[in-house]
Amino acid sequence: MLQVVRAPRLHEVTSPYDGRVVGDVPITDVSAVEEMMAAARSGAVAAKSLSRHARAAILSAAASDIERRSGVFAQTIVAEAGKTIRQARKEVHRAINTLRLSAEEATRGAGEVIPFDSYAGSEDRTGWFTREPLGIIAAITPFNDPLNLVAHKVGPAIAGGNAVVLKPSALTPLSAQLLADALYDAGLPPEVLTVVHGGRDVAAAIIGTRDVRMVSFTGGFATGEAIARTAGLKKLAMDLGGNAPVIVLDDADVDKAVDSCVSGAFWAAGQNCVGVQRILVHRSVYVEFRRKFVAATRSLVTGDPAEERTDVGPMITPGAVREVQLKISGAVDAGATVLAGNRAEGNVLLPTVLESVPEDCRLWQEEVFGPVVMLKMFSTYDEAIGLANSIDFSLHAGIFTRSLAAAMRAARDLDAGGVMINDSSDYRFDGMPFGGSKYGSMGREGVRFAHDEMTQPKVVCIRS
Questions:
Q1: Which residues on neighbouring strands pair with residue 373, listed in sequence order?
Q2: Backbone phi, then psi, for 68, in 5-degree steps?
Q3: Which of 96, 150, 197, 229 is the most buried (most CB within 10 A)?
Q4: Distance of CA 31 to the CA centre of its chain
Q5: The one catalytic residue among 65, 145, 273, 452
Q6: pLDDT tens-digit readout, 89-146
């Protein structure tokens, strides 16, 4: 069973689709933080003493366990996060891959030889640097990928020989609990991974603790700012959201662009930091793209996420639905036109498409984090790039074109952490560096790159 320090109260987890209770987790009181950190300090010693082979073996065994029980993990994601069963299965598959990539990184992220003799006067020196653990890493994860985003923090941290204090979203803690149990069952010493369930007071107490050497956070910009103020002198790695643009040039394969953008906009009910939000379409293909995109959007099946046929399930809470509807209403009041959707059935907000959204609206300027996408016509390449780059949050962007020259030019000109060519902005492979430019993030995820963030170089120099 999951090891949690002092848990006198239980927090009930409810389904975002029908409100039924799907599980519970024990709440850690803020008064227990010092005891919890004492356990984590022991965990840091234990983690560092694990051989690279042992770390890899634990991560691999946990991945295999999840694979054997993938149905349970997928059903848990559906129950607590409201992802459709097909989307949940994909998340489980990705989490398995993330842990296996972490196992590989445990055996190869060792450092490099340093050519000391490349500097005059150091000809009699040789040496190397290793990558050493930071110590204790605090990981704070969101609701929208309740299994794989936990794996993206815990896997590389363990591979690097660190202890982890994990606080998953209070809305979706059950998947994290299952992942932690899989790691314990695989042989991970319990003190290496401490899972904490609680509110902001508990998170703030953990983040502000001097023993924590790094905070890895995925979530909203305001929370990220609060964490930065609380953390003090320690490393920060943050994914703070995005507002992804996709450009459709006049020579694009329109059908391919439509299919990719519909999936990218409405996957996980649009609760996706790299999901398609603003689609910029060249005026010569705009009418065709709009017709096909709206038709494809209206054909999506909404409803019960447990049903195989469902394409779009619920948003996470009624409050999240209301917030998105407020942004839509503000845009409509300012002159935008709704082409599809904009109707809620419980927590299920029908996939919504708008055009003529003013650029000073919240819907255009902010991350919507819901099943909403905006279409906008442009005339020139420079106009499209200007529109794409006009937002402060930039994780991924996309472009559809048959021209290699245009694609490479856009890859250079787009201000984003990743540029997807002839693909949706929401494409992500768990081994690639993931993060944004401008205010979108600090640091990078992706197993190899997170491992680098979660370790530090140590130089050894030998003079003969």
A1: 353
A2: -65, -30
A3: 150
A4: 30
A5: 273
A6: 999 999 999 999 999 999 997 789 999 999 999 999 999 999 999 999 999 999 999 9
Residue whose token pair is 């069973």:
1
Give residues with Cβ within 8 angstroms of 22, minimum separation 6. Answer: 13, 14, 15, 79, 80, 174
Active-site annotation holder among 65, 145, 239, 452: 239
Tokens coding 353: 């498409």
**324 Cβ partners below 8 Å, 6+ apart?**
315, 349, 368, 369, 370, 372
User: Residue 190's pLDDT is what?
Assistant: 97
Please count the residues of the chain: 464
Confidence (pTM): 0.94
Integer Cα distance of 401 and 252 in angstroms: 4
CA 381 to chain centre: 30
Mean pLDDT, residues 38-51: 97
- 273 assigned to active site: yes
In degrees to the nearest 10, what's the CA dihedral of 351, 92, 189, 443?
-50
Contacts of 386 (CB under 8 A, 6+ apart): none
pLDDT tens for each residue of 387-403:
999 998 889 999 999 99
Tokens found for residue 433: 């560096």
**pLDDT 10s digits, 320-379:** 999 999 999 999 999 999 999 999 999 999 999 999 999 999 999 999 999 999 999 999
Q: How far apart are CA 1 and CA 441, in angstroms?
A: 34
Percent of the chain with pLDDT over 90: 91
